[in-house]
């Protein structure tokens, strides 16, 4: 046989993947685990290792595969209680307790296990016997910490792990080894033995809900999605949110410019808001950013688009009362399912979970208009400014690629004079509307201007903005003023101001 014939005969075939029972983790792994290998799942107590193991075995049960849970640390009652808290029944797979009551030594002054080589070998033999008896396709070994205590010697411990690996490889088992990372140093030897390493982490916060994240330290023969991915541990099990990579999601849409429902704003933006772009609305508190964005949202709903609104700052009751007072009734759109309005608590939200929610709106609900109010509160859910910027870059790139029109609200500190924002997001936006207060004739006025647009020629003029019972009005360009954006303008001409009849009723 020639070399050419030999190489063509032995082409490697694609190995089918085995689901972990956690959809997000399967996505991170590019489809799941390679069957009949040993994997290490490591994490400190509370990260959800046991839950991962149970979901792994329950997925096997659903596929008709036999499962075996070998525990040296938790009792069967404890495992059943964990499963019951998630609404699961684990009667369909076998549980073997190696730390049973009959193995306790009343004369021992240490742990329930002796650090003798005899007992280590006895434990390993029991594991092998149970596996041969049950012939499982999936095995969870919980946990390696007890095995490490039995060995008390790195060389003996490594040899025992190698022996177990060799044993499982001849039994067609896919094995998850759970480790609580109780070793004083990182166990690189164990990493080298395992076919793959999945690390679970729990990050305490000074205020609010703790954050959990997963990373793939190593995975042989699999192209996985690197980096950290958020996950939550709640009733029903672990839900993982793969890090959003916009390049993995391509879409086709018709690039069209739509009206904001405000002719004056349309004229300033060169026609309105374009599909597949994002617009940043910036200004101080109380200036009308949310109201202006709600009018854009209403215009999208009126032309038949599905939409989502995420409120980080304002309560739902306050928002609905205010929009109703301005003749913007959204209740019918909510009732029909065309509009989704959700209040978000940043102290309870993982950033990856929020990106997952937006993806669900776009891909499942068909949302084509999204408002995020505001980025200031969303910033509090992130560990730092640089991560917000990177996260928002991927998120906006994804939304733009799906043809979604996005409105982002960013509050600024101060009312007049020196006004600053928590973070500069202007370079990520396709268009930017700036709102400012200014003083004139002893009254406070609002001004609006478009300072950026990547898709059209926008006006460079500054206009008065009025919000009242009649809705939103945009006045003529404030050509008679200088320094409006500073809040302390100088009047140098005759510019007609929008008249407020109630304010000017008395002479």
Layout of helices and strands, plus pairs?
Blueprint: H1 3-9, H2 23-28, E1 38-42, H3 49-62, E2 67-71, H4 76-85, E3 94-97, H5 117-134, E4 138-142, H6 144-151, H7 154-169, E5 174-179, H8 188-193, E6 196-203, E7 211-219, E8 229-234, E9 237-241, E10 257-258, H9 263-269, E11 273-274, E12 278-284, H10 289-302, E13 306-311, H11 316-325, H12 331-336, E14 339-343, H13 351-365, E15 367-373, H14 375-380, H15 385-401, E16 405-413, E17 420-421, E18 431-440, E19 443-453, E20 462-468, E21 471-477, E22 481-482, E23 490-491
Parallel strand pairs: 1-5, 1-6, 2-3, 2-4, 4-5, 12-16, 12-18, 13-14, 13-15, 15-16
Antiparallel strand pairs: 6-7, 7-8, 8-9, 10-11, 16-17, 18-19, 19-20, 20-21, 22-23
Helix pairs in contact: 5-7, 6-7
Describe this structure in words.
- With 507 residues, the chain is of the alpha/beta class.
- 32% of the residues lie in helices and 26% in strands.
- The protein contains 15 helices and 23 strands.
- It has helices at residues 3-9, 23-28, 49-62, 76-85, 117-134, 144-151, 154-169, 188-193, 263-269, 289-302, 316-325, 331-336, 351-365, 375-380, 385-401, and strands at 38-42, 67-71, 94-97, 138-142, 174-179, 196-203, 211-219, 229-234, 237-241, 257-258, 273-274, 278-284, 306-311, 339-343, 367-373, 405-413, 420-421, 431-440, 443-453, 462-468, 471-477, 481-482, 490-491.
- The protein is elongated and about 95 Å long.
């Amino acid at each position: 046989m020639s070399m050419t014939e030999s190489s063509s005969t032995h082409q490697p075939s694609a190995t089918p993947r085995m689901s972990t029972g956690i959809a997000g983790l399967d996505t991170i792994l590019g489809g799941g685990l390679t069957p009949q290998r040993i994997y290490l799942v490591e994490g400190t107590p509370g990260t959800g290792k046991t839950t991962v193991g149970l979901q792994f075995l329950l997925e096997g049960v659903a596929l008709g595969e036999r499962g075996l849970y070998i525990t040296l640390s938790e009792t069967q009652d404890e495992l059943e209680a964990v499963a019951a808290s998630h609404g699961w029944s684990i009667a369909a797979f076998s549980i073997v307790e190696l730390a049973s009551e009959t193995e306790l030594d009343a004369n021992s002054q240490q742990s329930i296990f002796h650090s003798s080589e005899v007992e280590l070998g006895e434990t390993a033999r029991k594991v092998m016997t149970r596996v041969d008896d049950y012939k499982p396709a999936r095995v969870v070994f919980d946990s390696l910490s007890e095995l490490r205590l039995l060995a008390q010697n790195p060389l003996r411990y490594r040899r025992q792990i190698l022996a177990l690996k060799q044993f499982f490889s001849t039994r067609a088992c896919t094995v998850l080894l759970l480790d609580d990372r109780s070793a004083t140093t990182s166990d690189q030897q164990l990493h080298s033995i395992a076919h793959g390493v999945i690390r679970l982490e729990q990050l305490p916060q000074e205020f609010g809900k703790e954050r959990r994240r997963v990373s793939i330290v190593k995975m042989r023969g699999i192209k996985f999605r690197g980096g950290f991915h958020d996950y939550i541990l709640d009733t029903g099990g672990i839900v993982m949110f793969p890090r959003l990579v916009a390049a993995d999601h391509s879409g086709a849409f018709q690039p069209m410019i739509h009206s904001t429902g405000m002719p004056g704003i349309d004229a300033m933006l060169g026609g309105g808001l374009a599909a597949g772009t994002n617009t940043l609305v910036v200004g101080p508190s109380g200036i009308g950013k949310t109201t202006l964005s709600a009018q854009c949202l209403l215009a999208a709903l009126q032309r038949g688009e599905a939409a989502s609104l995420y409120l980080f700052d304002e309560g739902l009751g306050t928002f609905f009362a205010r929009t109703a007072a301005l003749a913007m009734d959204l209740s019918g759109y909510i009732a029909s399912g065309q509009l989704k309005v959700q209040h978000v608590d940043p102290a309870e939200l993982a950033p990856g979970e929020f990106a997952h929610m937006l993806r669900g709106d776009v891909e499942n609900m068909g949302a084509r208009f999204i408002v995020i109010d505001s980025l200031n509160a969303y910033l509090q859910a992130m560990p730092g400014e640089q991560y917000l910027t990177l996260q928002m870059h991927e998120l906006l790139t994804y939304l733009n690629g799906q043809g979604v029109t996005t409105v982002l609200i960013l509050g600024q500190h101060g009312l007049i004079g020196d006004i600053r924002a928590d973070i500069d997001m202007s370079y990520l936006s396709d268009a930017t509307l700036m709102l400012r207060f200014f003083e004139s004739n002893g009254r406070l006025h609002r001004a609006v201007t478009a300072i950026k647009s990547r898709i059209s020629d926008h006006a460079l003029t500054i206009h008065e903005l009025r919000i009242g019972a009649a809705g939103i009005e945009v006045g003529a360009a404030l050509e008679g003023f200088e320094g409006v954006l500073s809040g302390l303008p100088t009047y140098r001409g005759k510019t007609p101001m929008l008249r407020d009849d109630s304010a000017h009723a008395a002479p």
